[in-house]
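for ur thesis appendix - Cytochrome C. copy paste whatever u need, i formatted it the way the template wanted (i think)
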Amino acid sequence: MPDMYVSVPYDVNGANGINGEPVNSKPVAGTIPRGGHPAYDLPDTNEGYELAKTTLTNPLEATEENLANGKAMYDIYCISCHGKKGDGNGVLSQREKFSGIPNYKDRDINAGSIYHVIMHGKNLMGSHASQTTYTERWQIVQYVEKLRSEL
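the 3d part is after this line
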């Protein structure tokens, strides 16, 4: 079984693949992966942040289920820095690992800007786009907005 030891390399983007059939590994422009959502194409710039603030709105209905999952995701990804109440007094802030974590109440933010920061990060905060799904990000946004209203 020499094929097991010496595999035949194929150029996945080449004109011919296995058995001479054409290969097209690139998705068609404008398509959305199954179960996916449109690509987030606002740039990681101040202009992109401002555009998100003025154009993005939460597509999810405000339900107890969405809020509960938003809290669960917040507890996993956000609470260590932003704190239980969103006051910027999380464990990492208390242990002086990071300073200057903002209080949600003191910020001019809305659903669009919160989502943009989750996607791209801001200042010391890194992006959380790869750790969360589209729906989870919007659920976190709902929960953060709830925290803001309680501060």
